[in-house]
Amino acid sequence: MPEITNLSDKIKKQLPAELVNFMQVAGEMAYSQGQSLYLVGGVVRDLLLGQTNLDLDLVLEGDAINLAQQLVEINRGKITTHPRFGTAKLQWDKWSVDLATARSETYVKPGALPRVKPGTINSDLFRRDFTINTMAIYLNPSHYGELIDLYGGRDDLEHKLVRILHEKSFIDDATRIWRGLRYEQRLDFQLEPTTLELLKRNIPMLDTISGDRIRHELELILKEKYPEKILRRAEELEVLPKLHPALKGNGWLAEKFEQARQLTSPDLPPVGLYLALQAYPLTNEENEQLVSHLRLPKSLARTLRDTNSLKTNLESLADPELSPSSIYRLLHGYSSLAITANSLACDSPIACQHIQLFLDELRYVKPTLTGKDLTRMGMAPSPHIKEILNLLHEARLDGEVRSKKGEEELVRRWLDSRGRGAGEVLTNRSKEL
Ligand code: CTP
């Protein structure tokens, strides 16, 4: 008889009392209805590793939506259900818990989403990616806290190994190739030798995965603490070229990611900034291939396009004689993540200084006077108002006026010379200044 491990002390020590209490109530409720409830997946792995993880995933041998509906009445929270998958999400205060009906999966076609049907906890654990993610903890009062470890997950945790459950795992779902690298690098583990062999052999299976799912995996990687470690490993194992052959996971990228972290600390950099840095070495055409391969949503696609287009204009920003208003003109209109990416990635110190000046100061400079002020000063409403405001903006940027009074004087000087045509007034403005 294998030894029974009870983790109830660990649960109490590592998880907040509200969540522990919730699990106990849920376990009692399931038990009273003759069903079994389990805590599963990443949170069990992290409990054993002593790492914080508050993403509770519960699996019920029974109808999870029904149980969730009963629980939501106690917590007075919000419930979101997916009847097709037999899953529900409960949210209350700052907590969120996923409940799923135990299921088994069959993969009809590599890379496609599996066919699912209700199953037991054993079949639910068997459908998972790596042994370290297949452990569960019993929550029913009779066995509360008992560890269920059917596939040697605990042993692999102790030996720091990422191991798949069966040899078709990467064929069934090649996103596990990326997931494996993510766990290996996040936890500082090793891919177990047979898993590593199968991973390498099945790299071509990544072609069976949709762009949306690959993008999702990449986003998960870019939300890790050190994504560059995963990308470096992906380059080493020749997985990275499957995203795009021109991408690199090298020292340059590691340095830029680190600078990005310093810039946004204590928060992690947004995915868009990391992605823009990752795609920085790509040509315009390669960039477009990446955008379409990953089916990037509009905002990320714009960040990548802007980054690339600004990169090709950096030469104009490297002119040491540029006035602040010219710097502004060259940079405004680009998305701010694209500008930040260029400030980190560009290799001309002068262009970098100019971008920094824009980010720190110029982008906030605005004239004080408005169109209304100009009409109050005697200008008839016309398109020239906009032009004068633009010129005032430039004068402000270049430090030629520094106060509202200065702006008014400048406008008055232009209006005094109204005898000449408005266009002439405007073209002569810079000379007068
Ligand atoms: N899973 C899987 N194959 C996938 C995705 C997920 O087998 N392609 C399983 C894993 O066992 C995982 C569980 O579903 O533990 C939940 O997935 P997810 O929330 O992505 O993983 P967690 O382990 O909860 O999160 P983390 O990234 O912190 O490990």
Describe the structure.
With 433 residues, the protein is α+β, with helices and mostly antiparallel strands. It is 53% helix and 11% strand. The protein has 23 helices and 11 strands. The protein has helices at 8-14, 17-32, 42-49, 64-75, 121-126, 153-158, 169-172, 175-187, 193-201, 211-222, 227-236, 251-264, 271-278, 284-293, 298-312, 314-317, 324-331, 336-345, 349-360, 371-376, 383-397, 404-416, 422-432; strands at 36-40, 56-61, 78-82, 87-92, 95-101, 103-106, 115-118, 136-138, 147-148, 161-162, 190-191. The strands form 3 sheets. The protein has a 7-stranded mixed β-sheet with strand order 3-4-5-2-1-8-9. The longest helix has 16 residues, at 17-32. The protein starts with 7 loop residues before the first helix and ends with a helix. Residues 419-433 have low confidence and may be disordered. Cytidine-5'-triphosphate (CTP) is lined by residues 41-42, 55, 57, 128-129, 133, 173, 175-176, 179.
SSE blueprint and pairings:
Layout: H1 8-14, H2 17-32, E1 36-40, H3 42-49, E2 56-61, H4 64-75, E3 78-82, E4 87-92, E5 95-101, E6 103-106, E7 115-118, H5 121-126, E8 136-138, E9 147-148, H6 153-158, E10 161-162, H7 169-172, H8 175-187, E11 190-191, H9 193-201, H10 211-222, H11 227-236, H12 251-264, H13 271-278, H14 284-293, H15 298-312, H16 314-317, H17 324-331, H18 336-345, H19 349-360, H20 371-376, H21 383-397, H22 404-416, H23 422-432
Parallel strand pairs: 2-5, 10-11
Antiparallel strand pairs: 1-2, 1-8, 3-4, 4-5, 6-7, 8-9
Bound molecules: cytidine-5'-triphosphate (CTP).
